[in-house]
Amino acid sequence: MIKNKKNDYLGWLVFIGIVILLLEILFFNKGLIFSLIIAGGLIYISRKKAGRKSGKILFIAGIIIFVISVFNMMTFRFLLLAILLHFFIQYLQSKKNPKKIPLDIQTQETTAPEETVIKVEPLFENVLLGQQKTPVGVYEWKDVNIQTGIGDTVIDLSYTMLPKGETVIFIRNLIGNIHIHVPYEIDVCINHSCVVGSTTVFGNHEPRIFNQVFQLKTPGYEESEQKVKIFTSLIVGNLEVSRI
To answer: What is the CA radius of gyration of the chain?
Structure first.
């Protein structure tokens, strides 16, 4: 009962937030979309001019415009108020209905055997800012599942021995480029989602992407004994998958 009320409450908050956002865009702050597009455009152009002074200036300007636009939104202020209200209601409910812990008395103590697990050092880490790439020399492969903030990720599969079966690469990135180099004998399946950017997959180039999802695979992927499945998502940036 309480869980259903909580779900209804959160559902109403989301609905009200969407209504406020639409009202803000249509009537009170029509320049919001324009400001966000300018911020995204500046950040995207700065990635094209990476390493240059002008690229850094454009990137900083895009971030500043984006942050100012978000903090000036009524929807952002409503979200902060809703979070405070949510925690306040939870606090009141915990006072009215304190959690009861039943006393469980067991006459015979049984211990389940402990299962041995091995901790493996990942190939990549989650980073907020910076570039990550596989070693230049031979290295041991481990499946990739990372989230990054701003920066590039480069994966070269030609310096490692992939296991039999399906190898998984999962990368979620806010702003940056993803480069993946795959040997010719390896079949590939790609699931890519991007808001603003471009893709190049084995020479097939899509220069302008706006809020699109791509699903591509090589013809022999399903029957292949050695294959790579790639999941990538970008807010702003480019994906390049090439043969090596």
So the answer is: 24
The CA-based angle 40-174-26, given to 5 degrees, is 45
The amino acid present at 178, given as its one-letter code, is: I
The total number of residues written for the chain in this structure? 244
Residue 51 has pLDDT above 70, yes or no: no
- Domain segments of the chain as ranges: 2-96, 127-243
The Cα–Cα gap between 201 and 213 comes to: 14
Give yes or no for a contact between 226 and 160, defined as CB atoms under 8 angstroms apart: no
Q: Which residues contact 121 (CB under 8 A, 6 or more apart)?
A: 142
Range name among 50-64, 69-83, 99-113, 157-171 with the lowest pLDDT average? 99-113
What ranges make up the beta strands (E) of 68-129? 127-129
Give phi and psi for 217, each to the nearest 5.
-155, 155
Which amino acid is present at 146? Answer: I
**Residue pLDDT, tens place only, 96-126:** 666 556 655 555 556 667 788 888 888 898 8
- Other CB atoms within a 10 A radius of the CB of residue 221 amount to 17
Q: How far apart are CA 162 and CA 169, in angstroms?
A: 12
Q: Is 34 helix (H, G, I), strand (E, B) or coil?
A: helix
Query: DSSP assignment, residue 205?
Result: E
